[in-house]
Amino acid sequence: MNIFEKEVTFVWLREWSVMSYLYLVVRYFGIVVAMNSAIWGGLFYMPEAIGYGLFLFMEWSFSVYFCLTEVILIWRLYALSNKSKPILYVLLGFFLPIVALYIAVDIFLWSRPSAISVQETIITPNIKYCGPFFHIGPMTAIYTSIPVICFDIFLVVLAIAVLRKHLKEQKELKTKPNTYVVMIVRYHVIYFVVNLASQVFTVTLWANLPAAVMSLVLLFKYTAPMIIVPRLIISIWDTHANENCVHVNTTFEDCVCWTSPNLELPEIESHV
Questions:
Q1: Is the pTM for the entire model greater than 0.70?
Q2: How many angstroms from the chain centroid is the CA of residue 127?
Q3: In this structure, are residues 14 and 272 in contact, taking their beta carbons and an 8 Å threshold?
Q4: Count of C-beta atoms within a 10 Å radius of residue 135
Q5: 116-124 and 127-134 as β-strands: parallel, antiparallel, unpaired?
Q6: In terms of Cα–Cα distance, which of 66, 76, 75 is closest to 98?
Q7: How confident is the prediction along the chain (272 residues), in pLDDT tens digits per residue?
Q8: How far is CA 104 from each of CA 51, 88, 135, rounded to the nearest angstrom?
């Protein structure tokens, strides 16, 4: 099945959960951001004023999208920790300043004409390209990216610690590690790599890159995360269904198979 067929099967035809809503937001909001990026990147001619507005929309949308990915990571860690409220509160306590930082960066860096502007570049007499021009160096972007990277490191370290504890417990019980715990932690690492690459590419934008290099950087920044994140979410549901779990009609968060994979109980329906 392609991703849309899986979406219909695992989202629209199933009982909805928090992750279902998060999936739909990152899936379709990501499509909007990617399409806007394609239009802004030279697919159509547009005046500087319109190009600048679309560029601001992309940057603000990018910040919103990555905040959503952080919410997904937090929710997964909350589930892995047996829905521990203290862990959830700690994670949210660290996350809220990151949200405030994203807003401050979007206002101070991306929304000030003195820091960045959009200008037409003449490629041929009949072709004009609307591109960004950065008027300050990369140091501010570097400093503001450090807390975000540290928070991502904290999330991936916490996920690895949960996996290590799980492996130790399963070894003591002489049973195989849970497939879904391993998968979720592996995807945490992938999220971290994608977020780190995006932060690095965002910083490099301020270094007056050649037009060709900047186009490649923007292509990755505005397309790769929008493709990868929804696929990582839905691949867990796909694996869950293909395992022929007896609780397959239960929302994945409430299914016992990923906390107690060796149980073989009659199928139950969840109303959570």
A1: yes
A2: 35
A3: no
A4: 12
A5: antiparallel
A6: 66
A7: 577 888 888 888 877 888 888 899 999 998 988 888 777 655 556 667 777 888 888 889 989 999 999 999 998 888 888 888 999 999 999 999 999 999 999 998 888 888 888 777 666 666 666 677 778 877 888 888 999 999 999 999 999 998 999 889 888 888 888 888 888 899 889 989 988 888 888 888 777 777 667 777 777 887 888 888 888 888 887 776 665 555 545 555 555 455 444 433 333 233 33
A8: 22, 24, 18
Residue 205 near residue 134 (C-beta atoms within 8 A): yes
First to last CA, the chain: 27
Tokens in use for 177? Answer: 């590690």
Q: Where are the alpha helices (DSSP H) in 39-138?
A: 48-80, 85-105
d(CA 64, CA 161): 28
Q: Report residue 242 CA to chain centroid gap.
A: 25
Identify residue 46 by its one-letter amino acid code.
M
Residue whose entry in the numeric block shows the structure tokens 């994670």: 91
